[in-house]
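cache lookup: miss for this entity combination. No prior model stored, computing from scratch. Input as submitted by user K.M.:
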Amino acid sequence: MGRVPQKLNLSFYNRKDVVLIARELLGKILITQWDGIRSSGRIVETEAYAGEMDRASHAFGGRRTTRSEHLYGDPGTSYVYISYGMHHLFNVITNKKDIPHGVLIRALDPIEGIEQMLIRTGKSYGDFTLTKGPGNLSRAMGLSKLHSGMSLTSGEIFIIDDGMRYKKDQIIVTKRIGIESAREDAELPYRFIVKGNPYVSAKKS
DNA sequence: GAGTAGATCCTCT
DNA sequence: GAGGATCTACTCA
């Protein structure tokens, strides 16, 4: 690619089309850096959550609670939330403050800090479940609800663009998964995955 | 390989 | 007190 990697800045996150942002996040690199350890991975699966009109969103119908508060935060911040009592899910906040748009990062292709990820998860090298699925991903990267509300444009969590682009025929668009209770909105084509990547969630849509 | 149940805890009703 | 933007292990075939 030959391009200098650039950290995504506010002008990437503050756009209105959360579905477009979710699509563009494919191929970007998510990096966490704390305790002197750097871990990173290329994003290969995302889902868009489109605010108060989206039944699958925690903010559906204008619910604004302690849990979903960070969904309403500034663009370019994180929203980490615990599901089923044990899984941390990492989201990127988009659009603008008070608009609860977010992109759930569902899977990564690990690049740096794999040793550390293996230690965090207790898995062994070559295990594709390491960063497959939002719960595993957060555990491997060391993300927890302590990191909810953190800025992604400075500090310890950020996303860079190294110029890598997936071609149109490498990207598959499907409906979202794991949100059966969202009824008809579960059918929306808001999930983006990279074709053939072994770290993409195995679960069928 | 497909289908199902259990784990486990925070949040909302 | 119920249920969830999930994962794993176990069953059956």
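stored under new cache key. Residues 14 and 95 of chain A are 4 Å apart (CA to CA).
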